[in-house]
Amino acid sequence: MAAIERLWEDFDLPVRDSLHFADGHSCDVALDSDAPSGLRVLAPFDLDETLESDPSLVSSVDGLAAVDLGRKGLLWGGEGSYGSEGFIARLTVDRALMWAIFFMESNPFDRIRLSNNVATFSSTSGTEITVDIDDPRTPISGPASNRTA
Question: Which of 3, 37, 68, 141 is 20 to 30 Å from 120 at the Cα level?
Answer without folding.
Answer: 3
